[in-house]
Amino acid sequence: MEDIGNLFHGFSVVLQPYNIMLMVVGIVLGVIVGVLPGLGGANGVAILLPLTFSMSPTSAIIMLSCIYWGALFGGAITSILFNIPGEPWSVATTFDGYPMAQQGKAGQALTAAFTSSFVGALFSVVMITLVAPLVASFALRFGPAEIFSVYFLAFCSFVGLSKEPPFKTLASMMIGFALGAVGLDQMTGQLRLTFGFETLLTGFDFLIAVIGLFGIGEILLTMEEGLSFRGKAAKIDLKVVINTWKELPRYWMLYLRSCLIGCWMGISPAGATPASFMSYGIAKRISKNGNNFGKGEIEGVIAPETAAHAAGTAALLPMIALGVPGSPTAAVLLGGLLIWGLQPGPLLFIEQKDFVWGLIASMYMGNIVGLIVVLTCVPLFAAILRIPFSVIAPIILVLCAIGAYTVHNNTFDVVMMLVFGVVGYFMKKTNYPLAPMVLAIVLGDKAEESFRQSLLASQGGMGVFFTNALVSTIMVLGLIALFWPIIQGGLNLLRSGTKGSHPVA
Amino acid sequence: MNDVSDEASESGLSQRSVEIGVAITISILAMIGMIGALRVGTGWSSEGPLAGFFPFYICIAILISSAVNMTQILRTKNDGAVFASWDKINKVLQVLIPTAIYVGIIPYSGIYVASALLVGGFMKVLGLYSWAASCALGIAVPLFTFAAFEKWFLVPLPKGPLEHLLGY
Q1: Which residues of B touch A39 (CB under 8 A)?
Q2: Where are the domains of chain A?
Q3: Residues 444 to 473 of A: which have CB under 8 A from any B CB?
Q4: How confident is the prediction along chain B (168 residues), in pLDDT tens digits per residue?
Q5: Residue B57 to residues A31, A156, A205, A457: CA-CA distances in angstroms?
Q6: Which of A36, A148, A162, B110 is spaced 20 to 30 Å from B166 by Cα?
Q7: ipTM of this complex > 0.85?
Q8: Using CA atoms, how far apart are residues A333 and A331, in angstroms rounded to an integer?
Q9: Chain A residue numbers touching B20 (CB-CB < 8 A)
């Protein structure tokens, strides 16, 4: 196959000493960016983009994509060690990763997370290698109705498959939608729900919500125990890593499933965040240890991390092949391509072979280098847990404030962050789940937009969501997920009914 | 003396009243949302839903969910469970109030001075470290963040009179 030859040519480009150095630098920067809340993947890449103007496009994209991987890896570190998701897609990792760290299993959690990320990303890269030349025609079939159905599926899986009381999950999610709706309405250009407050023009940014709910909220919760809180010192060494690695192949079904979910969600505009939630929700339902999810179950770390990284990587496919970014970070990378005068799309494969295959080769190498770098730095990060809380709490608060500020260069956002922090405290204590709210804030606008675009095209008919096989299937899956508890209850009734008719002798 | 009563008699905010309060607050916010949505129109135009359509029905969904939650709360008997004892609430306020002050002064003093005060203050008052340690870290943290964000990442952060004096 001609493409394999191209791939090897790409490797030869990547494996030059200068480019290898750029990879390592990129990964390290990316991890730092991924670890800092608020300075997320998209922001971080955007900020570091100007650093690359002096390089050749191939070298530049190698470094930028490595920053991207680093950020993907880095989000897991603060999720597990501090229960502060460094990225929206690491939110699901906190559910089981942090309890594991609290139980002294931080090393295992981190190893599992990084390895899962690596596996997920690798899966997607192989997929991209095989599929990239073929993808154009299929993606064009994703109209607004199909896009909406994917969002619908993600939301429904959350309500139907979560362990919290469904009406609290629903309330939480609806609040998120309402918050997301504040500000400029994209379809009509009107301001809504702002009540004349100028500061609400841009609405509630999900980054602020995440920093407040998870960062500040968590600190407030922790304070209840007083300053005697201290992270359990984690013994990280090669033995822990290898022992965890020995354990992981047992979960190959989980890996496969999560990779597929991630790939699928990544290619579609849904992206890494819903992929991680969906993978977590489904893993919880299917796993034998489902009831332990949320208390420190390693599967609860594997599922979201694999899916999120598979999705994050897969999001690059539509960007390269069609010029349609599959995620905000991919959108920034796209901007970089345009600045360098490269036109993304099918022609890129023909006219700029060096570049495209160099990029794809760097995805392989970048992930390998990334895994090595994060595994070796794990002891460093675990040691952070031993710093006394009275020192680390204000530092986290300062970083959160900086993170909140840099989103829109707005001090009002820092105030909002604090408000969200108090909200998060109350919500956690009254068992209202936070994740659906964040998901709804992030995706609410986009979901609404695709809904309204679909209706625009169909002139108001709701049947547009069942017009073809693709969209109907996804919608039906969504409805099944939504009513799953009722369906499951019905199935249980049926089962116990048949058992009852065979009396035990 | 049985210890069972100790748990129930631990004085604090009761879980039940907080849950009720949360449900009521959510409902009020939902009603505010509905008013806001009505302002931009909640009907269906020739091009599909108006801007207020979604927010309106979302708020209705919130009200319904809150009503369900409320009935569930009111149905369960008051078992005296405590949301947080006054002791714990005190500790939370110990963080919340300094943070609120911190956030409040940032627009005026810039983030670096505010951070220095926060870190130093935390260490001295809550961590009971010495003056030397508190000041040392209190100054080191803003310096580090300054170097990292202003110089390295080239991300401007809010500055106050002190930085202006120094020429930034």
Answers
A1: 153, 155
A2: 2-496
A3: 448, 452, 455-456, 460
A4: 333 444 444 577 788 888 888 888 888 988 888 888 888 777 777 666 777 788 888 888 888 888 888 888 888 777 767 777 788 888 888 888 888 998 888 888 888 888 888 888 888 887 777 888 888 888 888 888 787 777 765 667 777 777 777 776
A5: 41, 17, 22, 22
A6: A36
A7: no
A8: 5
A9: none
